């Protein structure tokens, strides 16, 4: 295929990706009110069922609906988007790499969603409680502007989702020969120390609980990556 053919195929795949995200956005916009009610549950769990938000900017609620719809649509359609992108790359790789590519797409998506779930079920509400209740001085109104709440919500969840891509990064570095399972296992103490520092920096709150909620799963994923790399290396030698 010529360069023009490759660019045309890339253009078509970008159009497919936009159509997929747009289709999900129609649904998320239609159920926008229900999604909003669901996403503010941690806030109301911390401050009570009568907790409310402030509207500082005129268009903040409208822009939040659009932003929430877009982000959720991308997250839900993530495996479809990655598969469309992989379809553009696959013809340039050998059949074995193509097979592993599909597995990595699925594995990466599950890891990302797992990070989001961990943040939702264990971290985010605790983060709100620390800053809105535990560390709040007397006489300070605890209620947040609506746009600040959603910025915190998405930023923290995306940090956890991205952090859970650690096995993908390590395995890919192993497949191209930069890392090996022997090196990872021999340097596990240094790795856990680095993960501890990263967890302390990225954890949403000053409490130890938030740090451990990132440190423990990332440490587990590090050792899981070393095991998977060892299995792959053993398979390559056969």
Number of individual domains? 1
**Biggest pleated sheet:** none
Question: How much beta, percentage-wise?
Answer: under 5%
Poorly predicted runs are: none
Rg, Å, rounded: 21 Å
The chain-level structural class is mainly alpha
Pfam families: TatC
Membrane topology: Multi-pass membrane protein
Protein name: Sec-independent protein translocase protein TatC
Main location: membrane
Model description:
It is a single chain. The chain is mostly helical. It has one domain (3-237). The chain is 80% helix and 0% strand. The chain has 11 helices and no strands. The chain has helices at 3-30, 32-39, 41-47, 60-76, 78-89, 95-134, 146-163, 166-175, 181-186, 188-202, 208-237. Helix 6 (95-134) packs across helix 7, helix 8 (166-175) runs parallel beside helix 11 and helix 10 packs across helix 11 (208-237). The longest helix is centred in the middle third of the chain and has 40 residues, at 95-134. It is flat. The mean pLDDT is 85.
Which descriptors apply to this entry?
single chain, 11 helices, flat, mainly alpha
SSE order and pairing:
Elements: H1 3-30, H2 32-39, H3 41-47, H4 60-76, H5 78-89, H6 95-134, H7 146-163, H8 166-175, H9 181-186, H10 188-202, H11 208-237
Question: In short, what is this structure?
Answer:
By secondary structure, the chain is mostly helical.
